[in-house]
Amino acid sequence: MTAGLSTGVTAGLSVTAGLSVTAGLSGGGPVRGERTADVVARRLAQAILSGEIAPGTRLREENLARMFSVSRTPVREALIVLSSAGLAYLEANRGATVLQLTAADVAEVYHLRAVLEAESAALAAGRTTGGPATGGPATGGLAGLLLAICDRMAELHEAPAAEQLAADTQFHYTIAEASGSPRLHALVRQVSAIPEAYRSAIPYTGADMTEAERQHRGIAGAIQRSDAGEARRLMRSHVEWAGRLAVDRLQPNLATGQGTDPQPGP
To answer: pTM, whole model, 2 decimals?
Structure first.
């Protein structure tokens, strides 16, 4: 695996020419309920996945805080998210070092997400007492809200990646929140760092959006019927499908071997 530093990100990202993550937070605005730390984590993850930040690059808190015009606290929290996602090696009081991501890593992240989100969908279905599946938010409860989000997705086939991500994230996080388990909701958000970074950079095609919307409507219908088993099965299948797309689209920037990750520098 590559351990070199790409031009413009050496010395702890002190040289910033051409690096999109230095544009502050405006280029990758927050989705619903997102913290500053989440935005910073997603922007950094996006740059890592695109190859703009190379494996072996040192990410220093003070430099990143200055680049994003935020305090060091959300940067520190963002680096913890990257470490949990397997994108960086975290060192106490020394920032983090970018690791090389493999196709197997991305597949594993989506597998974990599928397990967690399948459970959140089942729990949400078990707690649902909504109205008709065809109703809107006012008449369909949770299912109506989910279907309204699906209607929004139908309008985003040619939209920028960020708009597609916002609708998709709202659908998934609404279900995670409706599970009634704050811990599960937090875990779903945590394991979504890589998927969100990928989706914010690479838009779905019209065919992808059509299929994603179809699968979302199936999940919403199962939740409306309080069919926990079907909601679990459909959500797991949906996230696994998204994972296969992610591995395929990210393949050019992923390592293919089983080599050694870059070791933290002095």
So the answer is: 0.72
